[in-house]
Structures are given as C-alpha cells and as structure tokens.
Amino acid sequence: MSERASFSVLPLAGLILAAALSGCVIAPAQPYYPVDGPVMVAPPAPREEYIGVAPVVGQIWLSGYWGWSGGRHVWIGGHWDAPRPGHRWVPHQWVHERDGWRLHHGHWDKR
After folding, report:
1. Which of 20, 53, 79, 97 is most buried, judging by how many CB atoms fall within 10 Å of its CB?
2. pLDDT (tens digit, 9 = 90+) per residue, 4-14?
C-alpha cells in the first residue's frame, strides 16, 4: 500500500468511527422517584399565569403547579375546566413529610 493511500484511509476511518459513536449517549444515573413518591427538593414558588377570559361561560380556572419529571421540577400550566356539580376543586399541593416532599394531586372533592 502506498503512503498516499494510507493517509486517505485515516480520515475516512475517523469519520466512520465518529458516526458510530455519535449514537452513544452517556448520561449520569438519575435517582429513582416513584410517581407519587417523595422528592428531596422543595418545589419553587408558583409561577404567575395569565388567566384571561374563560373560553366558555361558567368554566373555572385550575391553576398550574410544579410537577416532578426527569429528576427535576417541571411547570404544568393551568387550564379552564367545567365545574362539577356538588364538587369543589382541591388544588395540587406539595407537602413536606418525614422522607421528603410529596405531591398531592389536585382533584374534585364532594362537598
């Protein structure tokens, strides 16, 4: 093999190796938190949301909240919803417990 040929193979081999390794992702291990399990990080303060006018007369605004996803707090925006007769909306709430912070999901509660 000539010297000229060996130099032309090296860049090609480098490109093939780079292409093969570009599919590899090395990510740090994330701590496991069950869907409703405790979280060690307190949620940030609620965000201010622009509420505007209800799209349908009689709907009520259900405020956004901080959820937990991918090892971090993620804002879930609020939305309009129709009230449920005989029920009241209980908003999402983070509660500090012995083993960390736990999200109590919002729900409709009978009055």
Report:
1. 79
2. 555 566 666 66
